[in-house]
Write a structure and sequence with these properties.
Radius of gyration of chain B: 13 Å
Oligomer: heterodimer
Number of helices of chain A: 0
Number of helices of chain B: 0
Largest sheet of chain B: 7 strands, mixed
Order of helices and strands of chain B: EEEEEEEEEEE
Strand content of chain A: over 45%
Largest sheet of chain A: 6 strands, mixed
Helix content of chain B: under 10%
Helix content of chain A: under 10%
Shape of chain B: globular
Order of helices and strands of chain A: EEEEEEEEEEE
C-alpha cells in the first residue's frame, strides 16, 4: 500500500509562474506535513511544515493541508530559476518516537526556465 | 565542517566487497538516521539511532550493518551487496527522536557492480 502519492514530474515552468505541487495520502493518522527541497547533489532540507489542517505562508511559499481530502499542496509564487529542485512531501503521525518517522513522497522535479 | 557530512560521496563496489559509509553531524543532535533514496522511489527509512542506541530497524537486510559509536557519528557497513542496492544513501540527524525537522547530509552515491 502506497501511503503517500506524489507525481514525480518533471515539471517545467517559465520564470515568474505560479507553481502548484501536490501530494495525497491514505493514512488518516498523519498530523505533521512537511515539504523538503532537494537540490541536485545535495540532501533534502526542510522548507515548510504544517501541523494538522490549514495554510502556512513563508515569503513566496504557501503550504496548504486539507485533511478531509487527505491532500496537501505547496504553492510557489513568482518562481525563480533558483527554485529549480526536487520537492518532497513528507508526513508523520506525531512528534517523537516512531510516530515521528517521516513518510516521504517520491518527490517532484521542478525546473524554472529563465 | 558544519551540518551533516558524509564520506565517501561516491562509491563503486563489487558484490563481494566490504565497505563502510561514514556520517558525522556537527549540530549537537541526539538522533541519527540512515535513508535509502532510489530513482522513482520515495526515501526509505533504514535505521534510527537515539543517543547512540538503535531504536528502529526497518526490515533492512543483514548485508547492511549500522554502527553508532556516539551521538555524532554513524556508520553503515556494507557486505555482499546486490546490484539493486545501488542508490543514494542519506544520513540525517535531528535534535530529538522523531522530529519533523531532520538535517540531511549530501549522501553517498553507491554503485554495486
Amino acid at each position: 500500500q502506497k501511503e503517500v502519492e506524489q507525481d514525480p514530474g518533471p515539471l517545467s515552468v517559465p520564470e515568474g509562474a505560479i507553481v502548484s505541487l501536490n501530494c495525497t495520502y491514505s493514512n488518516s493518522a498523519f498530523q505533521y506535513f512537511m515539504w523538503y527541497r532537494q537540490y541536485s547533489r545535495k540532501g533534502p532540507e526542510l522548507l515548510m511544515y504544517t501541523y494538522s489542517s490549514g495554510n502556512k505562508e513563508d515569503g513566496r511559499f504557501t503550504a496548504q493541508v486539507d485533511k478531509s481530502s487527505k491532500y496537501i499542496s505547496l504553492f510557489i509564487r513568482d518562481s525563480q530559476p533558483s527554485d529549480s529542485a526536487t520537492y518532497l512531501c513528507a508526513m508523520s503521525e506525531g512528534y517523537g518516537g516512531s510516530q515521528g518517522n517521516l513518510i516521504f513522497g517520491k518527490g517532484t522535479k521542478l525546473s524554472v526556465k529563465p | 565542517e558544519t551540518g551533516v557530512t558524509q564520506t565517501p560521496r561516491h562509491l563503486v563496489m563489487g558484490m563481494t566487497n566490504k565497505k563502510s559509509l561514514k556520517c558525522e553531524q556537527h549540530l549537537g543532535h541526539n538522533a541519527m538516521y540512515w535513508y535509502k533514496q532510489s530513482a522513482k522511489k520515495p526515501l526509505e527509512l533504514m535505521f534510527v539511532y537515539n543517543f547512540k542506541e538503535q531504536t528502529e530497524n526497518n526490515s533492512v537486510p543483514s548485508r547492511f550493518s549500522p554502527e553508532c559509536p556516539n551521538s555524532s557519528h554513524l556508520f553503515l557497513h556494507l557486505h555482499t551487496l546486490q546490484p539493486e542496492d545501488s542508490a543514494l544513501y542519506l544520513c540525517a540527524s535531528s535534535h530529538g527522536l522523531g522530529s519533523y525537522e531532520q538535517f540531511f547530509g549530501p549522501g553517498t552515491r553507491l554503485t554495486v557492480l
